Each structure stands twice: as structure tokens, then as C-alpha cells.
Amino acid sequence: MKTIKILGSGCKKCLETAELAQAVADEKAVTVTIEKVTDMAQIMAYGVMSTPAVVVDEKVVHKGSKPTKKQLASWI
């Protein structure tokens, strides 16, 4: 099982990123745990200065914009 963290303030793009990640995982029949991280100290601990950001299994794979469905599929 993969753990996906969506780092961000809870803005619309952050929420859409979390929803898209779950949809892609469902399409691929992959079990994932999606966590939304809104605490700025935790976000900065990943070295992220712009959100939304995506962390897959503790590795930052994307930051600064909403990723595409194709990008999410490649990480999942």
C-alpha cells in the first residue's frame, strides 16, 4: 500500500489534488492512504515552499501546482 500526502493549506487546488489522487488509485485498483497535511511546519520539513505538493512514500514528487492525472498515475 502506498501512502500519499497532499501538502497544502486546504485550498481548492489542494483538495482537487487529493480527490484526483484517490480517483487514479481507484482506477488502477491500487490501495492507497491519502493524508492531507496542512500544518506549515510539517510542510516546510519536506522542503516545500509552494503548494500543493505531493509526497509518495515520503518522497516529494511534485510541488507548486496541481499535478495532471497522467503524472499521478505514474507515481501510483
Output the keywords.
single chain, 76 residues, alpha+beta, four-stranded mixed β-sheet, 3 helices
Please explain how this structure is put together.
It is a single chain. This protein has 76 residues and is an alpha+beta fold. It is built from three helices and four strands; from the N terminus they run βαβαββα. The chain has helices at residues 12-27, 40-45, 69-75; strands at 2-7, 32-37, 53-56, 59-63. The chain has a four-stranded mixed beta sheet with strand order 2-1-3-4. The protein is globular, with a radius of gyration of 11 Å. The termini are close together.
**Main beta sheet strand tally, sense and closure:** 4 strands, mixed
Mean pLDDT: 94
Strand order in the largest sheet: 2-1-3-4
Radius of gyration: 11 Å
Instruction: Supply the number of helical segments.
Output: 3
DSSP strand content: 25-35%
Helix content: 25-40%
Tally of DSSP β-strands: 4
Please, what is the oligomeric state?
single chain
Low-confidence stretches: none
Overall 3D form: globular
Distance, first to last CA: 10 Å
Structural class: alpha+beta
Element string (H = helix, E = strand): EHEHEEH
TL;DR?
By secondary structure, this protein is an alpha+beta fold. It is built from 3 helices and 4 strands, in the order βαβαββα.
Task: List the SSEs and their pairings.
Elements: E1 2-7, H1 12-27, E2 32-37, H2 40-45, E3 53-56, E4 59-63, H3 69-75
Parallel strand pairs: 1-2
Antiparallel strand pairs: 1-3, 3-4
